[in-house]
Design goal:
The protein is of the alpha+beta class. It contains 1 helix and 4 strands; from the N terminus they run αββββ. The protein has one helix at 3-15; strands spanning 23-30, 37-43, 46-51, 54-59. A two-stranded antiparallel ribbon has the order 1-2.
């Protein structure tokens, strides 16, 4: 599975929001000195609009 697909799946699992896509930012090594894991970082923008008792989510 591609890292982008894992990121999208994790957003759904952890927050309950189904995002259609994510944008790659950068990668960083975690635990320098004792681990060589490369962690890719992704972003996704979501705007929440509240009107009366209704909540709308706009995915970008």
């Amino acid at each position: 599975m591609e890292p982008k697909e894992v990121a999208i799946e994790e957003v759904l699992e952890e927050t309950g929001y189904a995002v259609p896509s994510v944008n790659y930012i950068t990668s960083s090594f975690t635990g320098l000195g004792f681990s060589a894991n490369l962690l890719p970082l992704y972003k996704h923008y979501m705007v929440r609009l509240l009107l009366d008792n209704l909540t709308f989510y706009f995915l970008k």
